[in-house]
Amino acid sequence: MRSIIIILILISPITSSGQTKKLKVNLNHDIKCVQASYSLVFNDEFDGNSLDTSKWFAFYPYGPEYAPDSCAFCRTHVSANIFRDENVTVKNNLLYLKSEQTGGTWFNTNYNYTSGMVHSKQKFTTYGKYEVRCKLPKGKQQWPAFWVFGWNTEIDIFEFICNGPEKIEFSVHNWLTNDCPNKNPKKGSPCYSSQSKMVDFGIDFSEDFHTFSVEYEPTMIKYYIDDIMVRYIPKYYDLKGNPINTCNIKSGEYLTEPAFPHYGEPVQVIANQSICHKHKEKNPVFPNVMEIDYIRVYQKDIQQDLVKPLKYIK
Question: The domain spanning residue 185 has which CATH number?
Fold first, then answer.
């Protein structure tokens, strides 16, 4: 029954977004499919006794280089909690991101909760596949997410935004922080977005582990749950607005999805367990955890400045 639900989602209107007006472009070269297979270029299997700090920050490193967490945003983001190092633990071959109803102060602001997150130190500058196997926290007070971010580029592999572990959202945002041609975006909002809205597959993702991944390729972004494609975002459309669902594209005039990422902008991998400012959970669960089995990144055209994975994963 669950497979049937996912197949129906595949052919439903959420496969692409009509949230932004497509832009006309003149493609002056042919695009051909990349025939190479994906190779593992970054991973953490979390099989040690503590977080590997050569790979991860436990905060958003947006402060100066000598003190990367010295900003108000660095340990709070937009959540109702402070991200603390002690809320990130590794044991039993799992990474635990724990939220607790514990008060604290960060940059002169009081918070009622603490939680955990990881943010990769490695930056990725080419197309790739990003994957996590995890079990989500329970309750509508939680906001777990797995995503990649690069200042202008944001690909949300998943977000469960304050509606429980059954309702998932997939998004791509183009922030264009310094130069947004889209007139009057909402304050604090991206310049362009392609969002699925909340999707309910009839699965409680807090009951067991599931694999979530995204393949970011030159002409398409494809979302998968347990190796089943559940959404795609094409980069190109014909002049009638029909999506081009192939990786072989001839030169010519097309419409393009303005939220599609700009190639080459460095992005980093983030997994976080946040607390919602507002929610409808009558009996919030604390402490609560997001359990992660592994995080892996694959590439076809491998960038040169990567730290090699510690071991080969079949």
Answer: 2.60.120.200
